[in-house]
Every structure is written in structure tokens, then in C-alpha cells.
Design brief:
The protein is an alpha/beta fold. It folds into two domains: about 120 residues, Response regulator (Rossmann fold); about 90 residues, Winged helix-like DNA-binding domain superfamily/Winged helix DNA-binding domain (Arc Repressor Mutant, subunit A). The strands form three sheets. Strands 2-1-3-4-5 form a five-stranded parallel β-sheet, with helices on both faces. It has a four-stranded antiparallel β-sheet with strand order 6-7-8-9, covered by helices on one side. Helix 1 crosses helix 5, helix 2 packs parallel to helix 3 and helix 3 packs parallel to helix 4. The mean pLDDT is about 90. InterPro entries: CheY-like_superfamily, OmpR/PhoB-type_DNA-bd, Sig_transdc_resp-reg_C-effctor, Sig_transdc_resp-reg_receiver, WalR-like, WH-like_DNA-bd_sf. This is Response regulator transcription factor.
Length: about 220
């Protein structure tokens, strides 16, 4: 799942990138409000972490523009501790959650995961779809209760399909959330990952709707 970190403090941005990357997100970052507005307005993100104090354009203005343009991705706002008016303004402008600085990375990751689940219409961290179980907190996978070892890339694919509520996900969308802006967005790379997962998980787990994309068997696809 793609996440955008908008933070002009390089140390905090680096820590956010590392924490969210370890939690299974494909993380992109920028430090300028104008760049953030453009990326959020033109790219597909499962989550945006947005600092309000940005150069170029302040975070509140960026958020208002996104929402005015119909961009409804989950946005977690970072604010200075004690700046309660900023938090109120952020929520009224369309923020989904806020976290005052300084904060613990564990809390930010927990809030980020909850926002992504909520945006997908799901409250639980454990997703049981047919014979497959995907635990997005533990980042683990099991088939009929038996744990299956998967790579980080394979886990991201399964987690994205699990959070898609049975929707058939087009290959291009899956590639974006697996690689972000990486140059490796090739259909044959995706097919190779799917083939590997089918060998590990067995038949009847990952379905294909030819010409449309992939889904998890046992979901509402």
C-alpha cells in the first residue's frame, strides 16, 4: 500500500519512512506544500501523513485543496503539541486523524493501519477470506490456520487484496501499491509474484478475472 509522508523535518521524515516501510507500506515523501498538493491530487495513496507547518504552502491549505477536488484518501495530520486550534481546523478541513508532536512511532503506525482499515470499511486487523487469513498487525499469512512464510512484496499484495473488500483489482493498481514510483511496474513482475503465491498458498486462494484483474477467492468478487 502506498503512503505519502509530507514532512519538512528531515529527521522526522526519515523516521516516518522507516517505521511505515517496516509496517508494510510503500513510502514516498516530500517536504514542500506545493509538491504535496500535486502528488496527493494526481497519485493514488492508501494513506497520507501530513505535517501542517510546511514551506511553499501550509498543510492546512494543502488538505483543503485535496478535499475541494474530491480527493478522499485517509489523511493523518501531525501538529505541534498544544496547538489545539490547528487540530480543530485540520479536522474541520477534512483530516481523518491527528497526532501531536512529539509522538511514538508505534502509535503513529497503529493509527495509520486503523485509518487504512476504516477507509476500506473494515474494523478488524485480521481478515479471514475463504481459507486465507491475513493479519495486518502481525503482517502474517495463514491458510486454513497453517502459517505461510511470504516475502514483504507478497505480503503487501495479499494485504491490499484483503483490504479491497472483494473488488477485482486491476494489475496497474496492484503494481502501484507494490512498487510506488519504482521503475519495476511491469505486468510480468506482477504475474511472477502471483504465480509464486499460488504455489505457496495452494489453489483456490487468488482468483483471476481475465482482462480485469485479481481478487481473493471467498470474497464477494
Amino acid at each position: 500500500m502506498r503512503a505519502l509522508v509530507v514532512e519538512d523535518d528531515q529527521r522526522i521524515a526519515s523516521d516516518l519512512d522507516a517505521a511505515l516501510g517496516a509496517a508494510g507500506f510503500v513510502v514516498e515523501s516530500c517536504a514542500d506544500g506545493e509538491d504535496a498538493w500535486f502528488l496527493g491530487d494526481t497519485e493514488d495513496y492508501a494513506l497520507i501523513v501530513l505535517d501542517l507547518g510546511l514551506p511553499g504552502m501550509d498543510g492546512l491549505s494543502v488538505l483543503k485543496r485535496w478535499r475541494a477536488n474530491g480527493r478522499n484518501m485517509p489523511v493523518l495530520v501531525l501538529t505541534a503539541r498544544g496547538a489545539w486550534m490547528e487540530r480543530v481546523e485540520g479536522i474541520e478541513a477534512g483530516a481523518d486523524d491527528y497526532l501531536p508532536k512529539p509522538f511514538r512511532m508505534e502509535e503513529l503506525v497503529a493509527r495509520a493501519r486503523a485509518l487504512v482499515r476504516r477507509a476500506a470499511g473494515q474494523g478488524a486487523a485480521v481478515h479471514d477470506i475463504g481459507a486465507l487469513t491475513v493479519d495486518t498487525n502481525r503482517m502474517s499469512v495463514a491458510v486454513r490456520g497453517v502459517p505461510v512464510r511470504v516475502t514483504a512484496l507478497e505480503y503487501r499484495l495479499l494485504a491490499y487484496l484483503a483490504l479491497s473488500n472483494g473488488r477485482v483489482v486491476p494489475p496497474g493498481e496492484l503494481l502501484e501499491h507494490l512498487y510506488g514510483d519504482d521503475d519495476a511496474r511491469e505486468a510480468n513482475a506482477l504475474e511472477a509474484i502471483i504465480a509464486r503465491l499460488r504455489r505457496k498458498l495452494g489453489a483456490g486462494i487468488i482468483g483471476t478475472r481475465r482482462g480485469f484483474g485479481y481478487f481473493l477467492e471467498g470474497s464477494a468478487a
